[in-house]
Structure formats: C-alpha cells, structure tokens
Design brief:
The protein is mainly beta and 113 residues long. The protein has 1 helix and 7 strands; from the N terminus they run βββββββα. The protein has a 6-stranded antiparallel β-barrel.
C-alpha cells in the first residue's frame, strides 16, 4: 500500500513532457545515498516519469541522479502506479562531484555498509 495517489486519467501537467531515449537514472535520498535504479521514460522541466525495477518503499522527498549528465535534481514523489513513479522537481539541477560519481557508478554502488 502506498501513501501516494494515482494520477488522474486526464492530463493535468503544467508543462508538456517529452519522451526520452531510455535513460538510466538512480533514485537517491536527499543526502545522495543510493536507493534504487530506474529509467527515465518521460521528462519535462517540472518533473519526470520513472520506470523502476522493484516496488520498494521510497521516501516522499528524493533526488534523481542522471547517469548521462552526472547531475542531481531534488524531487517530490507525486504518484506511484505499479513499477512507475511520477516526480515533481523541487529544486535546481546540481552537478555531481567526482567522489559522488564514483560512489554511484562504481563497481559496488548498490552495497551499503
């Protein structure tokens, strides 16, 4: 059971979204700790639809790490539907530093101590 509501059937987006090429992303906590892998399906300047590989519980405030651009963007989890989630961006894009890139893309990035 999730605390996040399902989006309405009508399109209520504030800005048009565009389909992306399948783009790998990582869902991280606001302190940039890895939570899970995902794929950006649609994206706009205000938010994104992300495909997930498992239906784990996520906090309502997260950040999206873009593996292509090596950037973070804080977001609010708006809805959950099966293995897809909807995010609303809540802050500016921030470049990851070298240590963060290595920690999130290194060989054992998903292992926490």
């Amino acid at each position: 059971m999730t605390m996040h509501s399902t989006p309405p059937r009508s399109d209520s987006r504030m800005v048009p979204r565009r389909r992306t090429r399948i783009q790998p992303v990582k869902i991280v906590s606001l302190d940039r700790t890895f939570l899970e892998d995902g794929t950006a399906i649609d994206r706009s300047s205000k938010g994104a639809r992300i495909g997930r590989y498992a239906a784990r519980h996520l906090p309502s405030q997260i950040a999206l790490y873009d593996e292509v651009d090596c950037t973070f963007q804080p977001a609010t989890l708006v809805w959950t539907r099966g293995l897809q989630i909807g995010l609303r961006f809540t802050g500016p894009v921030v470049a990851a530093n070298r240590a963060e890139i290595l920690r999130l893309t290194g060989r054992y990035y998903a292992i926490t101590e």
